Amino acid sequence: MSPTPDQPHPVTVEERLFSLVLALIATQIGLTKAEILSTVQGYRQRFQVGGDNASLERQFERDKDDIRELGIPLETIESPDDPGSNHHLRYRIPKGLYDLPADITFSSDEIMLLKLAATVWREGSLSAESRRALTKLNSLGIESTDPIIGYAPSLRAREASFEPLSKAMDRGQIVAFLYLKPGESAPRRRVVAPLAVVLHEGRWHLYGTDQDADAPRTFLLSRIVGAVVTVPGSTPAPADDGLGQRALAELDALWRAQVALITAQPGSDAAVRLSKRGTPGAGSDSVELHYTDLNILADELAGYGPEVLVRSPAALRDAVLTRLRQVRDDHAPHPTSSDAPTGGDR
């Protein structure tokens, strides 16, 4: 059913996060939580003036975590008249981090093309609701003197399973899907009561109760194969706002417990990138990296080729070697008929 004229179109998570980022870049002085909830697309539709906005505030807290997980810096500014007060706390994203370096210049023709591209991008990527939100922010006296053309959305695209899982949680339904674990040749059907979908280390995870194991499990959405379907006659799962935090706490604990020691070639791309995420190891040019998923880290490290040497753990080193050998074998020349052994006297 399509929305009626009085019924607004549903706001996706991407648009809400993008609208929030856009609003926080547009202001120099920052926005209070009340200003954000009452003006930004995705919040204002549910905001109740003088009413109970507790669930909306919890949504904002989760969105702040998601934005920071995506590598976007989010600053908080205390009121000088009321230090320590969360009520008057302001939020902003420093726009200067998205400005070009001062030593980069463009010719007049290049500037003309950039302006044209920026205009097309703004008109094509901002919804009418987002543009109205910026206008409303200006009406509050929060001016944005610079056109926001230096910010390109970097919100990570969600997997196709995100929406059906979210709907199943809202309706208290149990779902089934095919899940392909690393090392397995075929996916296996899993029946799960979804309890929370969380963003951790830039990846979406499903936290739910595995009906076959009758125990909580965490699934990486990128490993769900095919469609997510509801199970007829399923028992509604209990709703609990704390389950998302519990899932994140478990993922954080796993991340802290698992440490890889690697050596990166000095001056290489691997050394630059991995040193920013890890801490110096005991040896020269070594880096300690925390991780939640061994196979995801193995995929990344194998992509650096000879620039990286895995010291520990052994399981990670073996996983990287397996991937490198697979690449070698896939690119090995196939034997021709002339290379085939010929028959001899027996």
UniProtKB/TrEMBL annotation:
Superkingdom, taxonomy of origin: Bacteria
Domain named WYL: residues: 162-227
Transmembrane segments: none
InterPro entries recorded: CBASS_pafABC_assoc_protein, WCX_dom, WYL_dom
Pfam families: WCX, WYL
Domain WCX: 274-326
Annotated spans, Disordered: 326-346
Entry protein name: WYL domain-containing protein
Organism: Cryobacterium arcticum
